[in-house]
Amino acid sequence: MDKFNRFKIWQNKNVRRSIPFCIAILFFLIMTHLDLIGRAIAFLFNFILPVIVGIVLAYIMDPPIRNIEKKFSERGTRHARGKAITIVILIILVSLVLLIVAVVPQVLSSVVKFATSKTSYHGALQQFVDGIAKRHVDMKTAFSTIDNMLDKMQSQVQDRLVSGSGSGGRHILNFVIDFILAIYFLADKKRVQRNARRFFRLSMRDTTYERVSSVWKRCDRIFIKFLFCEVIDALIVGCANAAFMLICRMSYVPMISVVAGLTNLVPTFGPIIGAVVGAFVLMMNNPIHALLFLIFTGIIQAVDGYMIKPKLYGDTLGVPGIWILIAVVIGGRVFGVWGMLLAIPIVAILDILIRETLLPMMEQRKIKREMAAADRKMKNSEETGALELLQALQKDAQEK
């Protein structure tokens, strides 16, 4: 059967004319049922969320496992992958235990202290306002606004602590399930990878498969390196903040240092948010400490931007800064914090796909169009030359 017979229906004018109306009706139904569609997507996402988190954890744990497995294989050790998985799991568990024992109690203590110290903050603010009032400056409105803000923050923090303690067991259970799924994914990685490669080899041409495989490997290297460099950079910034605050004898060192490290993961706007939060908390206790903290944050961000990050990343990304800023803004507006976190690697991957896949395809199509145009021009010139030759022969024949 002719390969075009299956598309014969599209040659019908009535079918082609009805397509825009069908698209318009579908768009209208989607827009009028956005709530239902959103709930359905949310239900489906929550249903498969453990699998997604397990795949993400396995993806993050895979690079160190590969390095350890490679070293074991070079020594001729049996069951190299199983031993590598066991070592990485033990390292993660020990790190979690140390984090829970050393850091979490300090952070919780700082949060509880901040939530229950509203009275002392009220007195400090009252003294501050009285001092300004002596200079004939009206600060009653500002004081009332800050006082209401503190009341709201105190109630929110206390509610979060109560609700967090109630749902902590459920989150721990979900994490255990996700971690177990990640271990199974890692254990069966080679078999899944082998089947996937076989499927794509059978469904693609060899040249296409090699091109896709090369682009995927580069994207994988970029994303993994970006992820680990971000974590290391956040640890450096958080530890530097903690050391500076301890030297200056500031309050709430664990809480503010953790906030500074976590917000540093968010490109561009994260350090600003961390600086504002830390300065606000310190200002309630000692305005001088808040000023010193802001100055140090500016210095550490300058050092981080011009020395630490270039040293960590090197020339891995190579994406213009304006595209990173646009991606962070759009990602944050559309997907929230996760959109801001993943904006840079996604832009880097899109840059690779455009430069190494889309642009070469467009160049090949342009070359084909130019060759076709040259062939048509040559054919037309040959036809014109043949016609001129025929006319010349006819003219000679008539003269004779």
Supply the key terms:
0% strand, 87% helix, 400 residues, 13 helices, mainly alpha
What's the order of the H and E elements?
HHHHHHHHHHHHH
- Kindly name the structural category: mainly alpha
**Bulk shape:** elongated
Measured distance between first and last alpha carbons: 58 Å
Major sheet: size, sense and barrel closure? none
Number of helices: 13
Helix content: over 70%
Rg over C-alpha atoms, rounded to the nearest angstrom: 32 Å
Uncertain residue ranges: none
How would you characterize this protein structure?
The protein is 87% helix and 0% strand. With 400 residues, it is an all-alpha fold. The chain has a domain at 14-107 and 142-203. Helix 8 runs antiparallel to helix 9.
Concise structural overview:
The model has no long low-confidence stretch (mean pLDDT 75).
